[in-house]
Design a protein that fits this description.
Helix content is about 35%, strand content about 15%. With about 300 residues, the chain is an alpha/beta fold. A hairpin with a 6-residue loop joins β2 and β3. The protein binds zinc ion.
Length: about 300
């Protein structure tokens, strides 16, 4: 038995080395980018968050009679994997799919869901999705445009769990929603918070860095102690506060440099940013440039 295992081990090593040799001949060798398997982590009071799979973290809220999903993963396969995990937790039907905003890593898995649950989003997010889904490559998503939209705050009626949908104005996009569970003190934030990289502001979707500051202040004012973002492990209020401070410091520094008469390139250099060759005009503005554009537009 032991011998057998060691033999299997050896052959696996040989296969693995053969694989490396084959890879070495084809340049460049790409790192393995297998997505982490999807897994569901319990929070409290019927609330869960889902890590792994393809696309951003998602949320699940299980009420007495029904289920709410927050964001839809990026592929049908991951959406189905999430549905399979939900079925392990509860037989309750899925009533709502709430979208925190319109980015593909949050909505492109929608076509892996059955038709029937209401799809809820901010009206501006629906508009972005309607434009994106006109692409023939995304035709499978066309029937999954949000069926219910909102422009302000709204409570979601599910039995057993109080769920509030909140919109604090343009920030990451102009159609962001926060899903707030006051009894559990949990808020699902979508991409309003990134820790470990610069905030992402989609100017082409009406996002603004100064709007993000306002939104983060309102997020901090919630009676919450657990924040679920699209791309981090669960966060605390201190994490969100730290992010707010760092954004405000960057905005103040850009403002001061503009007042000193510095150009955008000089400001980027002051932040240690260098433009990758050939990228000019090819990419969306980074965070410092977004701040610069907002400050100079206002004048
Ligand atoms: Zn996003």
């Amino acid at each position: 038995m032991t011998k057998g295992i060691s033999l299997i081990g050896k052959s696996a090593v040989i296969v693995c080395l053969a694989g490396l040799a084959a890879q070495a001949q084809t340049t460049p060798p790409k790192p393995q980018q297998q997505p982490v398997p999807l897994s569901v982590e319990a929070l409290k009071g019927g609330a869960y968050w889902v890590r792994g799979g393809s696309g951003a973290n998602t949320g699940i809220i299980i009420g007495k009679k029904e289920v709410v999903v927050i964001d839809a993963k990026m592929t049908e396969e991951s959406a189905r994997a999430m549905l399979a995990e939900i079925r392990k937790l509860t037989p309750n039907p899925l009533k709502y799919i709430v979208l925190t905003h319109s980015d593909g890593d949050h909505v492109n898995g929608l076509s892996g869901f059955p038709r029937g649950p209401a799809i809820v989003a901010h009206a501006n997010a629906r508009q972005d999705m309607a434009e994106a889904f006109q692409n023939p490559k995304m035709s499978a998503l066309a029937p999954y445009l949000p069926s219910e939209t909102l422009t302000g705050d709204r409570p979601l009626n599910i039995d057993g769990v109080r769920v509030n949908l909140l919109h604090f104005g343009p920030a990451h996009t102009n159609g962001d929603l926060v899903v707030y569970l006051p009894d559990q003190k949990i808020a699902y934030l979508g991409d309003l918070v990134f820790i470990g990289r610069d905030p992402l502001i989609h100017r082409h979707k009406g996002g603004t860095s100064f709007g993000l500051v306002q939104t983060l202040r309102k997020i901090l004012a919630l009676d919450a102690d657990t924040y679920i973002s699209g791309h981090n492990d669960p966060l605390t209020k201190a994490d969100v506060r730290g992010l707010l401070t760092s954004i405000e410091e960057k905005q103040a520094k850009v403002k001061a440099l503009i007042q000193e008469g510095k150009s955008l390139d000089e400001i980027k250099t002051a932040f240690g940013l260098t433009e990758a060759p050939g990228q000019t005009g090819q990419r969306r503005p980074g965070f410092i440039e977004v701040i610069y554009l907002e400050l100079t537009e206002k004048k």
